[in-house]
Amino acid sequence: MSDNGPSLSIAALAVALVALVVALGQILGQYFATAEGYRRCQASVMGPWARKTRMQWRWSQFRFETFFTTPELVLQDYSTSPVTKPGVISRERSWDFMSPEIVRPFAVTNISDIAVMARRMGMTWTDFRPEDGILRAEGNGHVFSSTLVRSIGMILQYMHVGPTDNGPTRSRTSLQPNIYIPTREADMLGFGILPGFEDLSIPPFKIGTINDVYATMNILDKSRKASKKIKDVRGIESTCTFGFSDLIPLAAPMMRLRGSTVIGLPIPTEYFAGLTCHKEGFVVFYNRLQEYIDGKNRVVSDQIKWVLGSYESLKARYTEWENEAEAIDQDNNRNLEFLENVHTYWDSTSDYFIALEKDDKGLRYYDLMASHTSHAVNYWGDAWSNIRGGKARDHYGLCDWIAEGAHKYFDYLPHIAEDMKRKGANTSRVDEAWIVMMFRAFCWWRCHYMNPGENSIQDPSRIPSRYWNSKLPVYIG
């Protein structure tokens, strides 16, 4: 018996140690079990982001708290470039603040940035109703769809369903027409907001809906006669805002980036193409400008001669300068040399107006633009009155009412001069400033492209302006 004593003691000790280990394991398991959500933040759920999952002991509660890190997708500005690019920010969160309905962590973005990123990926928003939790976009081999989860909000799902579609006739080196300029100003257009140009004190305008158009027109024309004219015209042509559309190239900044042929822009409003986009506008302007310069008893400034010389230089070297159809067909594949030269001319007009406002405080570009737009909304009715009354001018073999409308632009010049006189401007320079402004608008259009294939009248891809810069969260599942 005495010989077996040590063996029994050792066996008893071993059993006790095993029991202790089991008890400790149970206790530790219970404490680790207090780390709510920890198992839902593992590699099988989160991939590499699980490496940043951690637990922290809370003495006051005698439990573990789970912290996990997820990506936040945002569009980031860079001080050295006007380009905005998608970026990832790491956000650490505590599982304590997660809703009981959430079974795994989600990446997050916001409604404004995801709307932009989808468009830049070549997708079109076919349904965009965040207030109902409904988002759907597709195109270029990508699909976004959403579901609304109670107490969470919108959860966006992404699928890659096919190859990028370059179209049947596009080479590998050509760019698709639905690639857009990656800048903040260009993105604003997709929300129906016309960005302003700070150098000439032009604020942004909302133009995405017809009510936005009326409100903007009432800002430019305090008499409200111009907005009433637009309403009257829409009673006949229900989808058109004749004359108002030229506010886009007159007010917008240059969004094209130097050295790039990417010139695509989202369509900001239902009727976006004005006379300064069409060939008729170019041809009539050129011929009327020649007549103006050749007029008797008129002193023509060097600046007006510069406009004519610049126009003739572009006309002689590039057929796409006047030929709207050719320019549209080239979309994001326009001649880089052509774009650079036109861009330089546009910059020169900016320098001209900045210097002009310093010389003549009463001749502000904003006022000139506002006066022109207030009269331009009359061109459609006036053009048809001339045609039906036998008073039409030379249309140069082009569309009659558009060409006649371009003639009316020149006809409105005395009325614009009267408006500017009331503003305190030196009327001897109004003609010159208006001619430069119109040339500036032509240059803007040839440096940008809005895809006419998008049905802008019924296009749901134009996001309501209230969602621009909105931080409404969208979770990505």
What does this molecule look like?
Helix 9 (302-317) runs parallel beside helix 16 (430-446) and helix 11 runs antiparallel to helix 16 (430-446). Strand 5 and strand 6 form a beta hairpin. Strands 4-13-8-7-6-5 form a 6-stranded mixed β-sheet, covered by helices on one side. It is α+β, with helices and mostly antiparallel strands and 477 residues long. Residues 167-173 have low confidence and may be disordered. The chain is 42% helix and 17% strand. The chain has 16 helices and 13 strands. The chain has helices at residues 5-32, 43-46, 111-120, 184-189, 210-220, 225-234, 247-251, 279-294, 302-317, 324-330, 336-359, 365-376, 379-388, 400-411, 413-422, 430-446; strands spanning 54-58, 63-78, 81-94, 107-110, 124-129, 134-139, 142-149, 153-160, 193-194, 205-206, 264-265, 449-450, 473-476. The longest helix has 28 residues, at 5-32. The protein starts with a helix and ends with a strand. It is elongated, with a radius of gyration of 32 Å.
In this structure, how is the largest beta sheet organized?
6 strands, mixed
Name the average pLDDT.
88
Structural Rg: 32 Å
Strand tally, please?
13
**Structural class estimated from helices and strands:** alpha+beta
Q: Approximately how much helix is present in the residues?
A: 40-55%
Number of helices: 16
Q: Strand order, biggest sheet?
A: 4-13-8-7-6-5
Summarize the structure.
By secondary structure, the chain is of the alpha+beta class. It contains 16 helices and 13 strands.
Features:
single chain, six-stranded mixed β-sheet, elongated, three-stranded antiparallel β-sheet, alpha+beta, 477 residues
